Amino acid sequence: MSGRHLAVVSQGAMGLALLVCLLSGCQDDSGSPEALSSSRDEISRGAAAGQTASGGPESSTTAAWAIQPGVGVGPLVFGMTRDDVVRMLGDPESEQSRGDGASLLMYPSQGLSLGMSDAGRVNSFTMAAAEVLPHRRAARTFAGRTAEGIGIGASEEQIRKAYGDSLKVEPLGDGRMLRSTDLGISFVLVSHRLVKLTIWVGPL
Predict the structure, then answer these.
(1) Main-chain dihedrals φ then ψ at residue 151, nearest 5 degrees
(2) Which secondary-structure segment (H or E) carries 190?
(3) Cα gap 161→17, rounded to integer Å
(4) Domain map (residue ranges) of the chain
(5) At how many degrees (to 10) do helices 82-89 and 33-49 cross?
(6) I need a labelling partner for 95 at 20 to 30 A (CA). Which of 117, 128, 134, 153 fits?
């Protein structure tokens, strides 16, 4: 655990930069061709169906996707390659590259973006509300939650109750950011409501 925490701290700046831009041995079989193909079919069905919630259109596919700091989001895990991501989600709906070789793969129809390190591995996930995403007419709010029950639309009070003193506060435009480098998680709030949630790890 301590090694992972050191990696998280060293990657904190890069994770935040990717957020603003939007803004190992043990592995299960979620990256196998069969699992990737099955998940992509599920995503396609969910995107076609859509779902309207009180907070705006949601991605029905991601409703059951758990956000797990240090692990990943639903069937997506840290350390995946770009090819793994494309086999699972399809080609990015939008993509941004940085001069240092890092990039951001964006899927606004799922309310999801994936940060890629300069080594070509997933090192961050950003989940967002439809209203803060590009291509807003096609965007959907990410509907999954953390183990603590925190998802897009959560109040600042709920986030603080779940994560307590580990969070540091930073001003951010019209809102504010709460983040924990120890956990590798950050929350962007506007009017005290969560509109973006990012998890990240160190270089992969």
Answers:
(1) -140, 180
(2) strand 185-190
(3) 26
(4) 2-23+30-200
(5) 50
(6) 153
201 DSSP assignment: -
How far apart are the C-alpha atoms of 1 and 7, rounded to whole Å?
10
pLDDT-wise least confident of 31-45, 108-122, 135-149: 31-45
Quote the pLDDT of residue 137. 77
Residue whose entry in the numeric block shows the structure tokens 């409703």: 63
Whole-number Å distance between alpha carbons of 157 and 172:
18
Instruction: Kindly report the pTM of this predicted structure.
Output: 0.74
Write out the DSSP string of 38-86: HHHHHHHHHHHH-EEETTEEE-SGGGGPEEETTTEETTEETT-BHHHHH
Is the pLDDT confidence value at 24 over 60? no
